[in-house]
Amino acid sequence: MRAAVFNAYGPSSVLHIADVPIPQPMPHQVLIRVHAAGINPSDWGIRKGQLRWVLPITFPKTLGSECAGVVEAVGELVMHVKPGDRVVALLGHKGGGYAEYALAIMERVVKLPDTVSFVQAAAVPVTGITALQSLRDLGHVRPRDEVLINGASGGVGTMGVQIARLLGANVTGVSSGANEALVRELGANRFVDYRQTDFTERTGDRYRVIFDAVNKRTFADCRRVLTPDGTYVTTRPSPAVLLRSFFNGPDRQKAKFIGAKDRGRDVEWLIKQMSSGRLRAVIDRTYPLEAVAEAHDYSEGGHVKGKLVIEIF
Ligand SMILES: NC(=O)c1ccc[n+]([C@@H]2O[C@H](COP(=O)([O-])OP(=O)(O)OC[C@H]3O[C@@H](n4cnc5c(N)ncnc54)[C@H](OP(=O)(O)O)[C@@H]3O)[C@@H](O)[C@H]2O)c1
């Protein structure tokens, strides 16, 4: 099968297409014929070796932590899907999605209704679970909470705006002005252009939850505009946040780091919202497998609108 692989850490040019054997499923695994695979910033972080201490890899490596496609074969313990079913899967940091076939652990494979396309589905697992777990499990967002999403037009942020609204919150989205229409259309009640206004200086506004999806503002900055019992959630750990999360008291402002957990039931929830029209993936661009290096370069620029997806035919 064709797969995008790399044999050493480095720039996007290390990625190349190779002919590799089709993997065979273990008893608890599902083999998926991949039609679409999502791209995430952690993919190029791994490729560059930035995450080598936390996520060591062996070469040759195929990236891709989420995909959608058709079940090709299943291990003997797999009961909930069968060959021919349309599915979406979280592959985790083990990766494998940038290929014609990928192996997934059965608990992380979810059936896909006909109403959700492969491209839409492949764009959701990683960013969707990150936003869902940040807002629901760490922020404990409740109806009518004021919630601010920093990086509202990115992969995690576009999910965050919609999920915060689904949880009943009033949402303020922050991105550059060029993305205001998109962020409002996703459900944000208010919008801040970070190039014009520093939201942490607008001390007349208070948020019960600030979700910094793009790790651009510190807890220290955000405290000024958090309610006294407010929670700041970030997608990247810093010593200050880790220390603070350890000493979080019962009545004080809290700082938390999301390390998203690969839970199939959260993906199932997200797909259910998509099939009923309450949630959608924003797709900036799609690429053929051969153009994966180009996709990495664009992602690394830091201004993707929603998600990038590889389509494999
Ligand atoms: N810990 C975890 O479990 C976990 C899981 C998933 C992702 N992550 C991490 O979360 C981060 C975000 O991921 P992502 O997929 O959302 O990234 P992304 O899609 O690449 O984010 C791009 C977005 O960031 C916005 N942005 C850039 N600079 C900004 C600024 N100064 N203020 C506000 N917004 C700004 C851009 O908006 P404009 O174009 O308008 O500037 C763009 O739409 C990454 O670091 C990723 O590795 C962590």
UniProtKB/TrEMBL annotation:
Coiled coil: none annotated. InterPro entries: ADH-like_N, Chloroplast_QOR, ER, GroES-like_sf, NAD(P)-bd_dom_sf. SMART domains: PKS_ER (SM00829). It comes from the Bacteria. Residues 10-310 form the Enoyl reductase (ER) domain. It holds the Pfam family ADH_zinc_N_2. One of its GO terms (molecular function) is oxidoreductase activity. This is NAD(P)-dependent alcohol dehydrogenase. It comes from Fibrisoma montanum.
